[in-house]
Amino acid sequence: MSGSAPPLRDFAEADLAALIDLWVAAWRDTGFAIDFDARREWLSNHLRTLRGQGAEIVVGLDAEGAPAGFVTIDPKTGALDQLCVAPSEWGSGLARALLDEAKRRSPGAVELEVNEANARAQRFYERESFVFVSRSVSALSGLPTLKLRWNANDRGSPR
Fold first, then answer.
1. How far is CA 115 from the centre of its chain?
2. Do 149 and 111 form a contact (C-beta atoms < 8 A)?
3. Cβ neighbours, 10 Å, residue 18
4. Least confident of 42-46, 71-75, 108-112, 154-158
5. HSE of 91, CA atoms in CB hemisphere, 13 A
């Protein structure tokens, strides 16, 4: 990959099927014993609900211009609900670019929950200046989660 940031753009309805496909693929590669294919309709409805509540969806593109990742961010609350990158793009800088865009759109703070067993994601968020806030349990999966927070005043602004 070149030194330039991956291209990002705002969500379009035509992206929905591709985003759901890459979400399922990414979660499959995490090794969680959950039927993510069975959650396709849930994700479709969830993304629509988030948008209806004011969240924005930013889509990251691969070298061919196809959706390769996305992030949801509510600029009013700083709630980041989804950050997903296709497994083929892991390590490419796309996740960082999407997260930096979320920080830019919610410049005061960003909060999210990450599965406690997802060590790869936890390391990523720690590198990106997120700090532990609390523990919880996912209402959807029943798995333990960690609430993490990035605060611009404490940790600096995005790159």
1. 12
2. yes
3. 15
4. 154-158
5. 2
